[in-house]
Amino acid sequence: MKKTFLLIFLFLLFFAHSGTDLQAGGSVSLHEEVLPNGLKVLLLRDINAPLAVFQIWYHAGSINEQTGKTGLSHLLEHMMFKGTHKYGPKSFSRIIKRAGGIDNAGTSRDYVFYYQKLSPDRLHLSIELEADRMQNLIMDPEETLSERDVVMEERRLRYEDDPQNLVYEEVVSAAFRNHPYRRPVIGWMSDLKGITRDDLWKYYKTYYVPNNALIVIAGNIDTDSLMTMIKKEFGAVPKGPDISVIRQGDPEQRGEKRIFVKKEAELPYVLSAYKTPNILHEDSYALEVLAYVLSSGKSARIYKSLIDEQQIALSAGAGYMNIQKYPFLFYFYGTALPGVDIEKVEKALYEEAEKIKKNAPSEREVQKAKNQVEAEFIMGKDSVFFQAEMLAIFEMIGDWRLKGKYLEGIRMVTPEDVQRVANKYLIEDKRTVGVLVPLKRDKK
Amino acid sequence: MMHDARCTIQDTGKMKGKLFVGLHVSCIMYLVSVISILLFTVVPADAGLDVKREVLENGLTLIIVERHNLPVVMVTVGIKAGTLMEPEEKAGLANLTAVLLKEGTKSRTALQTSEEIEFVGASLSASGGDDYITATLSVLKKDVSLGFDLLSDIILNPVFPEKELTKKVKQIKAGLKSSEESPGFVASKAFIKEVFGAHPYGRLTSGSPETLDKIKRDDVIDFHSKFYLPGNAVMSVVGDITAKEVKTLLERFFSEWNAKELDAPYLPEIKSTKKRKTVIVDKDLTQANIILGHIGVSRDNPDYYKLSVMNYILGSGGFVSRLMQNLREEKGLVYDIHSFFAADKYGGAFQAGLQTKNESANTAIEEVLKEIRKIRNTLVSDAELSDAKSFLTGSFPMRIETSRRIANFLVAVEYYGLDMDYIDKYPQYINSVTKEDVQRVAKKYLDPEKFILVIVADQEKAAIRPEFK
Predict the structure, then answer these.
(1) CATH number, domain at B194?
(2) Do B26 and A74 touch (CB under 8 A)?
(3) A357-375: per-residue pLDDT in tens?
(4) Which positions in chain B touch A7 (Cβ < 8 Å)?
(5) What structural domains does chain A harbor?
(6) Residues B56, B44 contacting (CB under 8 angstroms)
(7) Is A107 within 8 Å of chain B by CB?
(8) 20 to 30 A from B375, CA-CA: which of A251, B161, B232, B394?
């Protein structure tokens, strides 16, 4: 299923120079500022939002890990909830929940982020607590071991016992030979067992520094008072050394790679992924429209063909993962209906790609894709969380202003552009295919 | 655009052909589970909702909230045409009827319906449920006429083509098969069956391959004409629209929805006797997926709010809950553990669910039982009580943050017979709960002796002790 989350800021099409308030007109405005220690702050004021959200992002995702230490970034994310010297263990979530808020965090290949969702008059809690845990974690050795066990349970839950997710993990890992995207965020089980408190501490001290962080706050907020609080709590945190940039590239792929996962499962499944550029590349807009034409809804090509007409798949679709820092993947997937060969599903997926490579999609299909992007854009604005998140994701890739550029780019796409990028990127020799082969368990 | 960082978990919806969503992000914990549990527990605070409710001449209950922050309109229609209304031997009929609404009407084919709605970037959905089925429309203000046109068309004029029915049955059966890959699904299916027995709550909304085979097109047509009645429905409209505009749209597109007497079917009673039973499912898994629980309460139980507070402390409070503190924070046994009271119209269940490596299954079960005994036998602390209250009352606005959520929420409020001023009363319901209340309801509604225990695991490795069998 293709799920799209979008760039929510039509109004950001109007560029302004940084460091000032960027008037968006109407009920929304953005304040951008960089503290002397390098901490970047984006404050989005939306007077209609009933809630506020605080997010802090660090460039400390799994791409920053070393061989043999996969899963380190994510385990550290867990440890960030284990207490600081000032507040003691088990206090973070308790304080937030007592204030009627919720909190959580997420780690991806590119970054880690922490957030709280609460009433705007409680934002001082977020600012104080996050500034504190940026520097003062306890990271008790015993707690570390126990949390490692928790993460291993998480890995079992999400991957070991989920056949389709295992295929995904294998495909990404096989697609990238050298680029750190090959490592799973959750980490390999054997690596998890070997991560020590010292590994975590070193990583924490290197990456959790103001010059490697971004704060985004959104809601019906008072920009001035928040800036004052942020400067007070974060201003004195010393700047860390510059973080080195990832430079590993991949050798050119010269033929299809194919992997198999044999596991107890009910239905066969295929996942086929092509390397594609990210949002920074001008082809990204046409690739996005391509994904919509193929897979956005029941009137889109893949559903119509594989599920409705041919009736060979339980689910099938395509998607484009374009908001990674580095080029990532465009994928096709399908789960076969009982009794149908998975080869047939795979072939039918490629046929849909071939059709577009031969003949450009219709004007109406492309217009539909654009309408869908625009509508999602507008509807997405109802959630202050997503507004903040999208702003942050773009800033983490390079510049939050890319968001405005994105919508502009989508509007310019022509059917011929879609055909061109399909021909350029959906190439057999450049893809990595994963197939789930269901095993039936032998009764003991 | 593919989203790379979703923490709140979305990869639980196997039926929906999940992929990639939530895959490469790992979070500190699942969140959605907490939210959904609280859906009916926690309600808007002041949040400034101006709710207009009226019952129209044809019997339709109409709820309108004007919200002009965005040029968007969200509609939810709830119709009492869920599994409660279907005969046991044709289980799945209610769901099938709902999901076929979009697959062909008097004037549109399935493809025409989806093409028209998708072209304007809107969405239209119809899905089954136990208590009621739901049809939703999410549309930009500029396309609201088209949206209402299609919404009324699928509710009023579906023709249920034989071809589409055959296709859908095939899909649902394959979906059921595919769900067997999910240990959580397998455990949950076994659990509700034991708790509710022959009552519709005891089976899957989708039915089983056997019952699905018995459903004919005439059954669907009949079910639709019998239950898809205005007097049997609630419609909420939330967003950039006035009450007057809504009325005009209804006159234009829903004027043919005529009142008709409802012939409500006999509902089997839920046998509320508790029993001790273990269900074992052997699978090639690294984790044991465990559910422990028993019969619970219906939504209108007067102790409902006391139970909300008690269960927050026991197992729905995320990191601050006792189950999470004990099994995750102290023992590292689980990634996620939650307990909840699923309270439906005519009954409900209490359950604690967890996953742990096969080898620690016994320990985990033991610890859950310890916590259940503890909250029955000892008063909770003042801090626990006040923390629970401040979260439950303070987190109101989160449940109704968006127009979509408000629309869905208000249909539930209406269906479960909660007054529209429930929103204002909720804090006092919660704040009046005492420590003694918490202990009393724990004693009354939790049972550490007579419970259903479902264990889906590699049974050889789990080696469940005789006392738990």
Answers:
(1) 3.30.830.10
(2) yes
(3) 999 999 999 999 999 999 9
(4) 1
(5) 35-234 (3.30.830.10), 257-439 (3.30.830.10)
(6) no
(7) yes
(8) B394
